[in-house]
Specification:
Involved in cell shape control. Keywords: Cell shape, Cytoplasm, GTP-binding, Nucleotide-binding. It is found in: Cytoplasm. GTP binds at residues 38-42, 138-140, 170, 197, 215. The chain folds into 3 domains: 29-227, 3-Layer(aba) Sandwich (Rossmann fold); 254-371, Tubulin/FtsZ, C-terminal domain (60s Ribosomal Protein L30, Chain: A), CATH 3.30.1330; 385-416. Helices cover 46% and strands 19% of the residues. The protein has helices at residues 18-22, 37-54, 69-73, 88-91, 100-109, 111-118, 138-154, 172-188, 197-200, 207-227, 244-251, 286-302, 330-344, 375-415; strands at 31-36, 59-66, 83-85, 128-134, 159-165, 191-196, 232-233, 236-237, 256-265, 316-323, 349-355, 361-371. The strands form 2 sheets. It has a 10-stranded mixed β-sheet, sandwiched between helices. Strand 1 (31-36), helix 2 (37-54) and strand 2 (59-66) form a beta-alpha-beta unit. The termini are far apart.
Length: 416
């Protein structure tokens, strides 16, 4: 497997920037979500619903930017004033037709209009920006990197991307768009979180039903990660806090990130037969809880990641245990973290917990950051290279034919 070629990443934007020192947080990570294009807008719409559903508190504000008015009108949770239609002078609200070069041009031309909507966000309350886009469409793949570059120039907060790769059966133009824009998006954000539709589409599933389920998978995995900074949930306090600085530290090296998630249903007893997180009750099976969490960390890492990769290529990682407080176990989190250290060979593996009351599932979230050995990206880059070579051949052939026609025209003129 050929490792992902070196992509220039701005590593100067590390977590030691002043705003973190001034604003130590003890709550969930606060994000300004900006969905760019059809897929990006739908995912942000789902993020808003999910944040309310779990009372996560990780969404400070949600915006949707698009060149197609019908896509914006179909959103249910993004406020009307936070829906921005760009490119009216160029495409009159009808979209860019999967032309990501046009998408980038429109975004650059109307960046002030987007900024006007962002100005309504209380950015002093925001820990980071998350620009969400489908990498196959024209508006998202073209415009998202333009917006990310703009945000990095103006704000001190990290600017992350959430890029959604198209399935290979969606069509060649979408794969080509992803191949063209992926490298640019990685370069313009502080870290690119990736979700690969190709891995998550089910055989025989309808397109609409498939995307609804996939969007749910996206927001559940990434939403739980960002919500995990909550120190207290109800009357329960996390023993080992995963706050916003831990997430930012894990993402600080730049590059590409992927997330794994695994759960197991457990019996709960709200009557208190089980101990608290400290494990002081004799009825609490500390060994069983330790083994369960360790196993879940392994399943989350070696199972279906949002982007398949060689785990050993990760630079940094974060392990988060979720579930009923009485079913969480600090020793299990630590053993899972140590196991991930061994798998990645990295000493930068962090761990903690996110107690959630009222549920019957214990889970493990694993964030792998700075991954490089990624077969899917190798494939995209190959597509991009071949497309570039084909384009150059077609252009050269067209120029030769034109020159030949000109020469023939000159010969005909000489005959008469």
């Amino acid at each position: 497997m050929v490792p992902v070629p070196h992509i220039a990443v701005d590593r100067s934007r590390s977590i030691d920037r002043p705003y973190l020192e001034e604003r130590p947080r003890e709550t969930a990570m606060k994000l300004a979500l900006i969905g760019f294009g059809q897929a990006g807008g739908k995912v942000v719409d789902q993020f808003l619903a999910y944040d309310d559903e779990i009372d996560g508190g990780f969404v400070e504000s949600g915006l949707a930017v698009n060149t197609a008015t019908t896509d914006l009108q179909g959103l249910e949770h993004v406020a009307d004033e936070n829906r921005v239609c760009i490119g009216q002078a160029r495409v009159n609200g009808h979209g860019v037709g999967a032309d990501n070069e046009l998408g980038a041009e429109v975004a650059e031309a109307d960046i002030d209009e987007i900024q006007h909507a962002i100005d309504r966000i209380p950015t002093h309350e925001v820990d980071a920006f998350l620009v969400v886009a489908g990498m196959g469409g024209g508006t998202g793949s073209g415009g998202a990197p333009v917006l990310a570059k703009h945000l990095k120039r103006i704000y001190t907060q990290p600017v992350y991307g959430l890029g959604i790769l198209p399935a290979t059966d969606e069509g060649g133009i979408y794969t080509l768009n992803a191949a063209r824009s992926f490298r640019t998006f990685v370069r313009e954000v502080d870290n690119l979180l990736v979700f690969d539709n190709d891995v998550w589409r089910s055989a025989g599933e309808s397109v609409e039903g498939g995307y609804d389920r996939i969007n749910r998978e996206i927001v559940e995995r990434f939403g739980l990660l960002f919500a995990a900074g909550e120190v207290g949930h109800g009357d329960h306090v996390a023993e080992s806090v995963v706050d916003s600085s831990e997430i930012i530290n894990t993402l600080s090296g730049g590059g590409i990130s992927t997330i794994g998630y695994a759960t197991e249903t457990v019996e709960t007893d709200d009557g208190g037969l089980f101990s608290s997180f400290t494990g002081s009750d004799d009825d609490f099976d500390d060994g069983s809880a330790t083994n369960r969490l360790t196993s879940l960390v392994r399943k989350a890492t070696l199972g279906r990641l949002t982007l398949s990769c060689d785990v050993s290529s990760a630079d940094r990682g974060l392990v988060v245990a979720t579930g009923p407080p009485r079913k969480l176990n600090r020793k299990g989190v630590e053993r899972g973290r140590q196991w991930l250290e061994d798998e990645t060979g990295s000493m930068e593996i962090r761990g903690g917990d996110y107690p959630i009351t009222g549920g019957d599932e214990v889970g493990a979230i694993v964030l792998l950051s700075g991954v490089t050995d990624i077969p899917r990206i190798d494939q995209l880059q190959q597509v991009g290279t071949e497309a570039k070579e084909t384009t150059e051949e077609v252009r050269a052939s067209a120029e030769d034919e034109f020159a030949s026609l000109v020469d023939t025209g000159g010969e005909l003129d000489a005959l008469f």
